[in-house]
Amino acid sequence: MSVLSDRWIRERALADAMIEPFVESQRNEGCISYGLSSYGYDARVADEFKIFTNVDSAIVDPKNFAANSFVDRKTDVCIIPPNSFALARTVEYFRVPRDVLVICLGKSTYARCGIIVNVTPLEPGWEGHVTLEFSNTTPLPARIYANEGACQFLFLKGNEPCETSYADRAGKYMGQRGVTLPKL
Question: What is the distance between the alpha carbons of residues 174 and 177, in angstroms, rounded to a whole number?
């Protein structure tokens, strides 16, 4: 597998709508950077957040996820409580080619503040808004800025197209829009 360049990402984004909307160069004036970089794409976080709360003493269970374990917020600045967690989504909608695997890494600006961004790999053939998981590992409230950079996606090309893609097996998170909760 090789990491794909800005040239390849731009060509696929424009020709195949691999990333929509697509920002052709890094934007960083007065904001946390986003857009095309040398060997990746820095995606933005949208203004929709699900912030975990323990007001109702809910238990987080991936097999039976309780809606009362979080509160919904649509805001330009999300405040994650100390040692807490929030779900969000990318502004961008991704369509992953059949011969590519996409890995996501958090941005150093957030990591240096104790805010960890986690995303599982985007599999070949998957498409949708990416659900982002933000962990505030600090004992202080933390801010996440909507419509600014949140994470970087790296595109890895396989030696050949996969035999069975995420779309072929009708994966449960295929075509997700908005912040998507765990599914069984």
Answer: 9
